[in-house]
Records
---
Amino acid sequence: MSTMRSALADFIHLFYPHVCAGCGSDIIDIDRQLCLYCISQLPSTHFFNQPGNPVEKNFYGRLNVVNAASGYFFTKHSLIEAVIYELKYKGNKLIGFEMGERLGHLLANSRFNDIDIIIPLPLNAQRFKKRGYNQAEVLSEGIGSIWNKPVVANAVIRNVNTETQTHKGRISRWENMDGVFAVAEPSIIQDKHVLLVDDVVTTGASLEACGAEILKVSGAKISIATLAYTI
Ligand SMILES: [Zn+2]
């Protein structure tokens, strides 16, 4: 940052305090959401360069993934929980883009090297309406900005009125995933290696259902990346 810009940033900061979304510190660049201390505290998984990591194993026998990984461990009352809360419930798209950039760096330096296109897991219509954006798409845009791969948000769609029983247990949720996702633009996916992106992987049921639809397209391959992984 030039001296001039820095002086201007300091001046603006006097009137519009800009604080870290993780810890509240005001020692933070004007255009960032997390301070350097918080970034250093993020619980990295190092899964992107670890074949057979727990995220990948989660899909064994369910979905034929080339690679799968998450950037960070998700635990209760942690910094990563706060980050995802900001992204999903506080309208903080900037923090999502910033975390997407971090994933982009992890991906660009990993074994995930022959991806053709990035597809965010589609959000259901009610949540999209309430939130105003798809957090997986925000993450994907952040990844694409660093990794220089196209983000395609509309090739796969989420059907409406297919998920009425989301409060049921794990087994029921799997059963209810039938017909939830559909490929709208097969020509975009044909013969492509798709990176499917979401914020958190827990059971992986949605990613599995969406990935299965993508794999029905001729020549398609799939890998999965999420910001966080629930232990
Ligand atoms: Zn902080």
---
Amino acid sequence: MTHPVIIGVDLGATNVEAAAVRDGDVLKSKKKKTRPEKGVEEVIDRIEKTIRKVFDKMDAEADDFAAVCIGAPGAVDTEAGIVRSAPNLKWDDVPLGEVLHGRLGLPVMVDNDVNVGVVGEHVHGAGKGALDMIGIFVGTGIGGGLIVNGTPHYGWRGAAGEVGHVIVKPHGRTCGCGREGCVEAYASKTAMEAIIREEMEKGRDTQVFEIMEDKGKNKLTSSVIEASLEAEDPLMEEALQNSQYYLGILTADLVNVLDPEIVVYGGGVVERLGESFLKPIKRTARQHYLQRRGAEQIRIVPAALGDDAGPIGAAVVAQRRLRASVN
Ligand SMILES: [Zn+2]
């Protein structure tokens, strides 16, 4: 039997990317700016246009596709296809599935963006073949997801997998979630930038902000991090080591709880720095594993699919749900 072609969509606060996917292969794709500041209606229009562009590129019509599945950045009611809360988009209770189903006439499913990215890496990327896997994505925040016994673990409220908000330092730095000491408050790009700024304000030297300006960036991006490391900027090096240390602790804690075969690290920083970013994380993790037996076989590896993890994973999620609905 041939595999159906599914439209996988990665909805981010900056870009929306739609792709026609068949069995883990991206056939055609299209990216547009999301422009959340223009309001919910405009964003939904942009998602529809992006999807229709992919139809055109495939020289196909809606009927030629089996389903659409969207990874959205926030809490999602997957049964109802409703985005419950997506702070980056300023969305609350948006019935995205129903609205797009009405416009496209296809089954439209909605899931959390990080969950679908983790599923993509698990089925077609770095975690292929693993029964138990942890995905950790390092970006402006720290996201992640858990694969337990071959399937994504959602938890009874759909709230599982919030690896970025594991507290690694009680009463530590204030996190975006309002609590103190989460790993995200130390290890994300946003956190590294804040830490560097604080040290600079204490009178220490750094070139990070000049490098940022030279590159025309208004925040600490992965390319700014790389250039700052090349310039051997001491504050950048410290902030990165600090990030890696806490990610190592996080990794060990998660391994001690879930005992996965593999931990897949994704996101811009990991993509940019690769193995050199993971090395110190592995070292710290190993020092904190409870069960030493077989610990050297636990793999900590970079993600393999890059930006395609979202659309590819969304297509997998859609195909599984289609199958479940016929059975
Ligand atoms: Zn937090």
